[in-house]
Amino acid sequence: MSFAVAIDGPAASGKGTIARAVAAHFGFLHLDTGLLYRAVGRQMLDGVPALEAAEALTPDRLNDPSLRSAEVAQAASKAAAIPAVRAALVDFQRAFARREGGAVLDGRDIGTVICPDAEAKLFVIAAPEIRAQRRCAELRGKGAEVSEAEVLEDLRVRDERDMTRPDAPLKAARDAVTLDTTDMSIEDAVAQAINLIDRLRAKA
Ligand SMILES: Nc1ncnc2c1ncn2[C@@H]1O[C@H](COP(=O)(O)OP(=O)(O)OP(=O)(O)O)[C@@H](O)[C@H]1O
Ligand SMILES: Nc1ccn([C@@H]2O[C@H](COP(=O)(O)O)[C@@H](O)[C@H]2O)c(=O)n1
């Protein structure tokens, strides 16, 4: 039996952290769909046309640690605004969502476009300054020299582009439950997500 959990939200809102913990708790597989766009963005920076990169994308490309950089994130968000690039990545995501045993996908359009019939939908948000603080701490932990101001600007530009593109813009699905993690610990946010999914599984 399949059970799909769709987790969307703006950049660095904590959706990946929640998605990984939820997948581990329920024994579901997890797909960070941002990595698909980051892998395309990475290749764009190397001069490969975005659509060519999307059509030739293979899962091994998703393990590249350089995909986490701010430069790749911006390139990913530009690639993600091209409808043909998004279309090339749809089948893989939909097949993942409906695999046996349960799946958690996090991204921007999972509950609205990729899996509108997902059994559980969450929209994870947090105040921009808090997201920037958290992402900044994460990047500094990996040795990057970044300021909160530049991280905040990076998130702002990406969110704006992601929310205003005509195709599959970032927005909450009508039936998504919004989780604002601004004043929540990771443990509390994960517990709330698990609680919601438990209730929805009991009904499914
Ligand atoms: N509730 C929380 N309290 C404190 N830190 C958090 C919380 N949730 C997430 N974080 C931290 O914030 C950072 C961003 O979280 P995460 O990577 O899960 O966000 P994301 O929405 O998946 O980001 P992206 O859009 O870049 O994929 C991480 O360092 C994570 O550990
Ligand atoms: N379902 C998705 C997921 C991601 N994107 C775009 O990719 C960029 C990077 O995503 P992260 O989750 O790793 O931050 C993001 O800014 C979006 O432009 C998307 O469009 N749809």
UniProtKB/TrEMBL annotation:
It holds the Pfam family Cytidylate_kin. ATP binds at G9, P10, A11, A12, S13, G14, K15, G16, T17. GO terms for molecular function: ATP binding; dCMP kinase activity. It catalyses: CMP + ATP = CDP + ADP; dCMP + ATP = dCDP + ADP. It is an enzyme of class 2 (transferase). One of its GO terms (cellular component) is cytoplasm. Its EC number is 2.7.4.25. Keywords: ATP-binding, Cytoplasm, Kinase, Nucleotide-binding, Transferase. This is Cytidylate kinase. It comes from Sagittula salina.
